[in-house]
# Entry
Amino acid sequence: MSERKYRYIGTRAIRPDGLDKVTGRANYGADFVLPGMLHGVVLRSPHAHARILSVDTSAAEKLPGVRAVLTGSDLPDLPPDMVGGVEGHTNFRQLSMNTLARGKALYHGHAVAAVAATSEEAARAGAAAIRVDYEVLEPVLDIDRALEPGAPLLHDDIGNGSNLAMRIPFEKGDLEAGFAAADLVIEREFRTPMVHQGYIEPHACVARVGEDDQVVVWCSTQGAFVVREYCASLLGIDPAKVKVIPSEIGGGFGGKTTVYLEPLAVALARKAHRPVKMVMSREEVFRSTGPTSGSKIRIKVGARQDGTLVAAETDIYMEAGAFPGSPAAAAAMCMFTQYSIPAYSLVAYDVLLNKPKVAAYRAPGAPMGALAMESVLDELADELGIDPVELRLRNAAGATDRAPTGVELGDLGLRETLEAARQHPHYAAPLGPNQGRGVACGYWFNGGMQSSANVTLHEDGTAVVAIGNPDIGGTRASMALIVAEELGVPYERVRSVVVDTDSIGFSDLTGGSRTTVVTGHAVSMAAREIVDELRARAARIWDVDPDEVRWEEGRALPPNGAHQPLSVEELAAQSGALGGPLLGKGSLNVGSAAPAVGVHVCDIELDPETGVSRVVRYTVVQNAGKAIHPSYVEGQMQGGASQGIGWALNEEYIFDAQGEMENPGFLDYRMPVASDLPMIDTVIVEVPNPANPYGARGVGEIPIVPPLAAVANAVSHAARIRMTELPLSPPRVLAALESAAGG
Amino acid sequence: MSERKYRYIGTRAIRPDGLDKVTGRANYGADFVLPGMLHGVVLRSPHAHARILSVDTSAAEKLPGVRAVLTGSDLPDLPPDMVGGVEGHTNFRQLSMNTLARGKALYHGHAVAAVAATSEEAARAGAAAIRVDYEVLEPVLDIDRALEPGAPLLHDDIGNGSNLAMRIPFEKGDLEAGFAAADLVIEREFRTPMVHQGYIEPHACVARVGEDDQVVVWCSTQGAFVVREYCASLLGIDPAKVKVIPSEIGGGFGGKTTVYLEPLAVALARKAHRPVKMVMSREEVFRSTGPTSGSKIRIKVGARQDGTLVAAETDIYMEAGAFPGSPAAAAAMCMFTQYSIPAYSLVAYDVLLNKPKVAAYRAPGAPMGALAMESVLDELADELGIDPVELRLRNAAGATDRAPTGVELGDLGLRETLEAARQHPHYAAPLGPNQGRGVACGYWFNGGMQSSANVTLHEDGTAVVAIGNPDIGGTRASMALIVAEELGVPYERVRSVVVDTDSIGFSDLTGGSRTTVVTGHAVSMAAREIVDELRARAARIWDVDPDEVRWEEGRALPPNGAHQPLSVEELAAQSGALGGPLLGKGSLNVGSAAPAVGVHVCDIELDPETGVSRVVRYTVVQNAGKAIHPSYVEGQMQGGASQGIGWALNEEYIFDAQGEMENPGFLDYRMPVASDLPMIDTVIVEVPNPANPYGARGVGEIPIVPPLAAVANAVSHAARIRMTELPLSPPRVLAALESAAGG
# Structure
């Protein structure tokens, strides 16, 4: 990496969207209004598993105000092998059936029909008037039951006569020889429940369809181009006719990378010849959108006396929900990867059951994998009498080690990150009574994919950077910093905007921790195109070769100091006269935003009377490559840790025996609030990503990978009992304490 | 020009915006709605000329629902020499004072205060409660009075103690010798009244201001970047903070190239901390926006017996309205230009008076200039016994002749256009009783200026072309045709969009007949950038030199036919794998969209009893260079002729003695409707513009240049009286007939 000194990159600039958000002016998905707009609602299945015998909409259609009723038969029947979308992995037929049930309702809350009417009340009345005859079937609600021979099957055409949608193995070395060489082998089974991302803003959209099928969709999404492709594919509309305008987004964390309401709103608008708005309630978000999988992971790890890992084996079962697509394979790709282990086996199982189809949630799968691996490493360290950070240092992967997929890792910066954790005062601080400390490490591969950017330098000396990635974590600030850095325009005069699908080249979703790195790279390319043009224009003014003109700190410098330098403001002001508007574009497709690692240290104080575990101190150490905007990086670190703490301690989908979620609201689904948490300390390590112009790595997902294990290790130490099932809620911890005391 | 064969260019493709407009779905300026939006109204001066002694807003501010009141003292006082905007010619201080009066009200309808309230009714009540004390002054209402010594002065600081804002002379050759060589000299004076563009959609906007002064303006405008610059400059806001989103536009014709409501809406929104919508009534549009100037033109032309013009002289007086800026100089630049005249003098006078400040109207100034010149040529032809087309052919300028500004004309295609008119059946058709035929020629220089374009080719094989020019006359269709032509993507799969100021490089306004030519050129550049990248990618696949790869009809062709050609669809589908999204950008600054000429032939039937002149046949012949979309070109030709006919026959601002317009509505301001006009015949001549990739010339303005003269010549022939003052309304013609009969 260059030793470049930065003027803007790495500063804590004021976020451009901040004031609008804190003053309530920012427009989210539900804030759009169109003249003549209808309101759409969804009728959802009251059964977790049921055959739909008939749907009678005739009474609903006659109700006052009702303008359109939609059922599964209104959507095109797509071929089973039609795929596309994010990384080409989305099965459109399944997505369509998740959007609106056909034949069977596969989870409690599965959409069965939709109604558009002149008011929300009229639409609800319409939905209530739809008669659906169901044949109720036995619901499949856990992994073990799903895989039992003779269990009810969700699908005839998926899983070859079972509820196992997929089995994906990864292997390396001689596992038997590895375990034979071990001085100590630990084997455990871990379970985690289904949990939700818990974004504040429910899904919301407005759709408008012209008589020529020209579609406009406003919605809260992490990927406007994803919505474009999904709506077009599910409804059989030419994507050339679809424009998607992303609103501000009140959180996504992976949960807004697919569609629920959007195709329904478009189909209703098309049928009603009027725009249609649809907004989910919180209950609908819980019951009918994609949380992440519950998991069951069996793991066995062998080590020598000195802590060297010699073999590891795991079976990762994850709940896909009603359609294939759990992150079990992603978990497998991360679980062992930051360690050099000569032999391993990782097998991922994707299990169908009658729960909502899961969606992405921040480093999907990796937190559960890390819970298993990092808990076992914690036990190994305990048993072998090795400091847990030291144990991980001894096994840290080298730059030429490879991921299970075969990709070379490069320098992860893991050693630096572990050392920073070990040197942090937190790590040496004494613990009080009933307190335990947990350490855990995490690895995440980070996404790559495609991004586009347009940069414009105006005559008034202001610049605009336009991208297609909704800003879920500081994208606008980071992109503005990059443009300010490259052009030398002051940060405050760079306008950073997220535009619609008609106004920018293809841009994969904001997710996979890719945006600052990959979209930022596209922005850098676009800004440098302008710099090249400015150098060429300066060269014309000076009558010299453009290659001889240097660009430094917002100024074109002539060869040999023969002329006064020309500033970006001077060149911009003359842009009309010098050939016209100054535009730059950038686009690229990359494999990854470089892998990320983090080390978390967690102190828990356990109340032995109540079983309540309280986080009393928490430190996140993470390799950010280069923190473009350190405050945002720290925010990601703190946010990821907070979500992971909630998942570890309290969050869970609780289903009754019929498969109905019993706690679909924030009062009963217990996410941590500010008063539940200490200030989370952060340390940014910077071991650069050589593929990025600034060395940046993806930072958004990795911070949720270690917390499950860090918290579980801390609770296990405080309780002196190895805890293997989440959440570590008071009843569960109390039961474990009582059972240990009784045993 | 190349002899390129086109697949899409020159076809009459279906317009992309058509169905939305005819089904009422298109969103115009007044169709935007924001949560918590207020309604703003303007309090206007009831006097044409008055000193504002005091403005008391205290009662208004206390009224229920009123949230903000704005007066001139709320706007920054700008320095007198602060200019910018369209071609750098806008004086911002004057624009600001026109937007909201300071010190004096200068015309009846001049904005004096503005009020934002929770409803339009509350805002009107608020405006009614504002107390303004005026000292009423004598209004200056015509050119002659304005220029009289001792006439009341509008401004202390403009005009050097007179109401003459500017005098601009153009001269060539020895005028005295020229006239001395003439066999026949004709001298006349012509007058035309102030007329309005008459666009259907009144001005409308919504403004939103964040607490950090981030501004968003939605509005109906011909130039979103103009609104951005004007709002920023008038309110002292950094343009980096201003985003303008252009709505669909229900007509502009030049009248929507400036601002009226937008800065007021922004200032009110800033003061009220709420979004503000403002919509003008038709009456406000007439009284308070910019029509085009009334004019007085004295002209003297000398010719030899054979029709050769030897000298011409003119004084062009035009009403600027309350602030400088009539199109008198533009009239001077066009009046004689299509003819080769060895000696001439053109003097343009910009006259201030107490009428609305004029704005652009389709070829500003040129129609009045053509009325004078083409009427005198008609008389010369009559007197000399030469066919009027022949007379013009004998004097047609050559390619190396120059405009009064010194610019070389190039081949105007005037001979071809005159010949096409002469050969048209209309020209030989016999006339009936009381009928007269008029011929007139027109010249317009056409604008150039800056344009930007982004083109994207998606993996699904669709393309998007994004531009910053609101579509007032078929821009979207033309841009899509160009992209289809260059990329080989079917026209139906090209999405053509007008985007906001954050989503595109700087783009001068849609006007000056520049958009298809200049923005189309930028689009062509952007599409060709993508073609170059496609050729490079094909070359990589084939492992050949990119320069050896040809692009023909949407396919990359390998050298020597060594491989199967790769289609645009195939290359697009692989774009992710081949390096990422395919983007192209284009931008340029040009002097002109190439000059345009037209020849109109008009037959009038005059009712001698009533003085009613009815157009019975009308033919427009015009050099379009290359008609990108012939139906739209014909539409421009027909539309321009229709507006010119209305101006010639009936339209006029009628002021009472106090300067109040007496006919501010479409019932009293008499524009032609469909039943007033015959089908207007069109002939497109194509003598290409060598500076455009397709040979296109600007076509939108020239068709309004000849009609005033063509109609006046026809009426003069039918009446056998030379008519020199417009409109040729029944009372005026009847009076002339009676006076001739009596005399």
